Amino acid sequence: MTPSPRHASLTMSATAPVGVFDSGLGGLSVLRAIRAQLPDEALIYVADSRYAPYGERDDDFIADRTLAIGQWLVAQGAKALVVACNTATAQSIALVRQQLAIPLVGVEPGIKPAAQISRTRIVGVLATQATLRSIRFQALLDQYGSDCRFLCQPGHGLVEAVEQCDINSDALRTLLQSYLQPMLDAGADTLVLGCTHYPFLDAAIRDIAGEQLTLIDTSIAIAQQLERVLGRHALLASHDSHAGLPRFCSTSDGAHQRQLAALLLQIDAPVEQIEIASRRTAPPEYLSSAEPRP
Ligand code: DGL
């Protein structure tokens, strides 16, 4: 029997890079935490900005792109993959785990920590439409949130704003206020940032909510989880490996990625423009010529 890709053995080296992927620029908030936790790791970051936001896409599209980008990162020599996107994790982590032969770390909204700290037992959740409708998200609520009231709000328009490097405009604040005010009025004391783009809006959220809401951002927990996973597979880079700057890649022109990384992560690195074809995005003639012929 041919082993499934998950069980096929890949010879991976601890000096190989970790692949980090998001629909766009949000995963940079996770990359920031990974660099702080694991400064010796070389990183390749892929922003699928050409097709963001994923949150308004159908489930098959999200799975198709997630798998294609995961496969591309494996082909680039990634030793592990961080799916730094709640939406992609919610819709396709099981499929990607089945198909890729490298260790994987996904992200999910911090429902568990929110339920642990909320005193009013009223918790706001901002996430994409696709995350909120997913079975995985519903399972999280069932598992950890039974005695809390969760006010779940799709963050329509927020990913688009961050993709344009807008983290502070009047229009953005008005939009955020329309999402947060009903939570504040209902007595929420905790807000789950259920999308990796949203930590970049923390200052705007603070201006609206003051100290009433404790923000739950899981990026540090994800970086710690990555450390555990790499350790388990003997893939942690040694302290004398000189990781250098991340390799930044984008399926769009990368201009906003460079700007946001410089502004919020103090990383000034060029962004490679890449093309990653997939079943749902390639022209049919590309796919038929790319498929192996019998
Ligand atoms: N950063 C992605 C997430 O965490 C945004 C998804 C989108 O593109 O809508 O869900």
Q: What is the makeup of the main sheet?
A: 6 strands, parallel
Alpha-carbon Rg, integer = 19 Å
**The CATH topology of the largest domain, please?**
Rossmann fold
Distance between the termini: 20 Å
Q: What value does the average pLDDT take?
A: 93
Return the string of H and E elements. EHEHEHEHEHHEHHEHEHEHEH
Could you estimate the helical fraction of the residues in percent?
Answer: 40-55%
Compile the SSE list and pairings.
Blueprint: E1 18-22, H1 27-37, E2 43-47, H2 59-75, E3 80-83, H3 86-99, E4 104-105, H4 111-117, E5 122-127, H5 129-132, H6 135-144, E6 149-154, H7 158-163, H8 170-186, E7 190-194, H9 202-209, E8 214-216, H10 219-232, E9 247-250, H11 255-265, E10 271-273, H12 284-290
Parallel strand pairs: 1-2, 1-3, 2-9, 3-4, 5-6, 5-7, 7-8, 9-10
Helix pairs in contact: 1-10, 2-3, 8-9
Describe what this molecule looks like in 3D.
It contains twelve helices and ten strands. The chain has 294 residues and is an alpha/beta fold. It has two domains: 7-107 and 220-290, Rossmann fold (3-Layer(aba) Sandwich); 111-217, Rossmann fold, CATH 3.40.50.1860. The strands form two sheets. The protein has a six-stranded parallel sheet with strand order 4-3-1-2-9-10, sandwiched between helices. A four-stranded parallel sheet has the order 6-5-7-8, with helices on both faces. Helix 1 crosses helix 10 and helix 2 (59-75) packs across helix 3. The chain is globular, with a radius of gyration of 19 Å. D-glutamic acid is lined by residues 22-24, 26, 52-55, 85-87, 128, 131, 159, 195-197.
